[in-house]
Amino acid sequence: MNKDLNSLLWKHHWKLLSLFFVTVVGIYLYNGLNQVNSWNENYQSTIEQIKLSEGTETIKDYDFSLFYTPGQSSNKIFTTFINEPSHILWIAIALLSFGLFFLDKFSDFDQFLFASRFSKKMIFSTKMIFGFSTLLGSLIIGKIIFIGLLYMQIPNEFFNATFFELLPNQLLSLLFYSLIFSMMMFFAIIIGDVFFLIFVSIGFSISIGFFMNTFRTLFDKWNYYQHGSISMIASNSWVFSLFKAPGIQGEHPPIWYYLVYSVGTGLLVTLSSHYYKKLSLENNGKFILFSTLNKPLILIVSLYVPFMLVSNWLYADFYNLQLTRFFWLNHLLSFGFGVAFCGSLSWFLLFKKEALKKRSF
User: Fold this and answer.
1) DSSP secondary structure string for all residues of 302-344
2) Residue 45 belongs to some domain of the structure
3) Is pLDDT at 164 greater than 90 in this prediction?
4) I want to staple 343 with a disulfide (CB 3.0 to 4.6 A). Which of 24, 136, 289, 302 is the partner?
5) Is the residue at 87 inside a domain?
6) Structure letter (DSSP) for residue 352
7) Is 49 exposed, middle or buried (0-12, 13-18, 19+ CB in 10 A)?
8) Residue 52 falls within a domain, yes or no?
9) Which InterPro entries does its entry note (predicted)?
């Protein structure tokens, strides 16, 4: 890393990086205080209800532990479900990546950087390091504050979790947010229209968690169809939870989740670096700045969106016992119509609309 480039980028982006850091830590602090207050209020309210209905002698029969663990007794009191503010963090991560890689394209700053002695590879690497270090640093500090509030404000006898029991889900959430940042970064580099960028980024980042769980749904569906066995479906929110084990899933996150998020992040960083080196500010305003990406993106959208819609149908219809060939045929036909519709719409947006724009000028 070049010290002069570091100093230059820090002077230009320090407000954005500082605002993101304060926002993320503040979100965790606020959420932690709310969770503590919610637990205490729920605990006191439940105690009063038990005293009024059953008397003080039966209170000892109830389990008020903070974290849900599968297989506990029926007297387990679900005092709270502790989830991270994932959707708010998505917005903050999107703004961070847009500020580092998208807004600079429409200002004189990127033009100044490209005309300087610094290579595009060096500029991209420095921006990326600034982004990832701010992201991971703020998340780790925020998580420490969040869990620290729970540990200090809730009685020890109810805090039924150790650091190593909470670590797997927290590590997975760090990998997931890294994937979201790298995804936003890639879109910010290859897309030249702000509204199209927001639409695509929000759609992909929100749906990626459901996309992962779709495979588990399909596996469970197939096992039931073939063997008559059924297992619980993982909820999308479990990736961001602080459960010792996910509330409706009796196991820790699968290893392939870690692999997919890690490999996906690495692939998106590699692609982002490749296209950033080819970036030209003359094409700003186009939906896609690189014409070679038009057809691959149409193919991805044409398959991804219908797959998400049909998978949600599968998820909602999972407990339907009439799993016949017609069931699968209906879903395949729906997927086919979805591919045709999304492919046509994507083609119009990326090709026909660009042609209409040129004619109007």
Assistant:
1) HHHHHHHHHHHHHHHTTT-S---HHHHHHHHHHHHHHHHHHHH
2) yes
3) no
4) 302
5) yes
6) I
7) exposed
8) yes
9) ABC-5_transporter (IPR053046)
**pLDDT tens sequence across 202-218:** 777 667 766 766 666 66
Phi first, then psi: what are they for 191, rounded to 5°?
-100, 140
Q: How far apart are CA 87 and CA 166, in angstroms?
A: 21
Burial class (CB in 10 A: 0-12, 13-18, 19+), 152: exposed
Range(s) of the domain holding residue 115:
3-289
Per the domain annotation, does 124 fall within a domain? yes
Q: How many domains does the chain have?
A: 1
Residue 247, φ and ψ in degrees, nearest 5: -55, -35
pLDDT of residue 245: 41
Place of tokens 């320090």: 14
Which letter, b or e, does each residue of 315-340 get, where b requires 16 or more Cβ atoms within 10 Å of its Cβ? beeeeeeebeeeeeeebeeebeebbe
Report which secondary-structure segment, H or E, holds 346.
helix 325-347
Q: Taking the alpha carbons of 224, 227, 231, 236 in that order, is the dihedral positive or negative?
A: negative
The whole-angstrom separation of Cα 315 and Cα 310 is 9
